[in-house]
Amino acid sequence: MKPKEFRYRHFLPEIILQYLRWYLRYPISYRQLAEMISERGVEVDHTTIYRWIQHYAPEFEKRIRWYARPWVWSLRVDETYIKVKGKWKYLYRAVDKYGRTVDFMLAHTRDLAAAKRFVKKVLKQCKYMPSSITTDKHASYTKAIEELKNEGILDKDLNHRQIKYLNNILEQDHRRIKRRIRPMLGFQSFKTANRTLKGIEAMAMMIKEQTIYLTKSYQNQIHFFNRLFGVYA
């Protein structure tokens, strides 16, 4: 019996999840993925793959959260640019000092409101209050952290560092995201971008082995990915 998430799908869950896993992991377009799979005798239109990604990528991110929640004492926070419908948007991202993904947020603006909203969002993923937050020297972070301290959301003793080299690990992680989205040639809507990026970031958590259930074995990652959706074959 199919898991309820796939109940009315024409294709087998294993096929859909293979498309999802490959698209979120490798720098490939919908059309290229459809061509690759057609060599195995499976004919799927690229628009169908698009609908699968939009439906299942956010669900993947939601389900892996329980397993991939890191223990965080020191945060690295920064943002990178993402083109949506020809305009630049801002992908806020946070990792711990080991490069493990803590949280992310796509925003229209790079200002105080966005920075404050993101820091509050990140804190919900932390099991404990971090002792330090490292950012660049953009004024919005300084003001956001000051206001959150005054509101009692951040500890007064939290150390806000603005040291560029400490954020190198996050800058390198930005490049991984850029390599993945380059074949997409930009997103056509904010909603589409947000849903797709959730899946890409969730896949990064899996590749970084942010759960005790994962090893470096690729087969182990495939089994874990399928189990998240109730597929055990």
DSSP summary, beta strand count: 5
Radius of gyration: 19 Å
Q: Stretches where pLDDT falls below 50 for ≥5 residues?
A: none
User: Which class best fits the helix and strand makeup?
Assistant: alpha/beta
In whole angstroms, the N-to-C terminal distance is 11 Å
Query: What do the pLDDT scores average to?
Result: 90
Strand order of the largest sheet: 3-2-1-4-5
Q: Can you give the helix content as a percent range?
A: 40-55%
Largest sheet: 5 strands, mixed
Strand content is: 5-15%
User: What is the H-and-E element order?
Assistant: HHHEEEHEHEHHH
What's the number of domains?
Answer: 2
Q: Helical stretch count?
A: 8
Shape: globular
